[in-house]
Amino acid sequence: MSSPDADSPLADQLLSLTRRLHRIHKHQLEERGVGITPAQSRLLRTLAHHIQHHGSSPRMADLAENLEVVPRAVTTLVDALEASGKVRRAPDPENRRVIRIELTDVGRKALSELRGARRAAAEEILAPLTDEQRSVLGGLLDTLMEGASPPPDRRC
Q: Please, are residues 36 and 24 in contact by the beta-carbon 8 Å criterion?
């Protein structure tokens, strides 16, 4: 196993790649005129994933937990997405004190555009790689993701 100093260039490369992917994704969103920030994009994807896997719209607290952010950050994102008609707040049918976040038709259309932007960003990043290199990279990323420890609790 190598020492932390020996891994420093690799860590720098990973962080640099992450920033590059973020910039490319942001550019793809702007180019398509979706009118969504990368953070809003992540919230919409998380919302759709929750609905698909749980069969119901999530609470704000569910979104905050899934996004690993403080609830106030979710409120800001939901406010902006609600103002643009992509999501709406709705009372829970079983407990009217609970507010659920629902995806609107405008939000579903935006998700479709987001998928295209993400695919284009990934293709731009992966363009220099051969099919074999992409396969190896995929395996390495799976290994890294499986071995990842949970992030520290940011709500403290």
A: no
What whole-number distance in Å separates Cα of residue 12 and Cα of residue 14?
5
Average pLDDT per 10 consecutive residues for the chain, totaling 156 residues: 66 90 87 86 94 93 93 94 96 89 95 89 93 94 80 45
Cβ neighbours, 10 Å, residue 74? 24
* pTM for this prediction: 0.74
Contact 125, 17 (CB under 8 A): yes
Which of 111, 47, 107, 34 is closest to 74 using CA atoms? Answer: 47
Rounded distance between C-alpha atoms, residue 108 and residue 84, angstroms: 13
Query: Under 8 Å CB-to-CB from 35, ≥6 apart: which residues?
Result: 84, 110
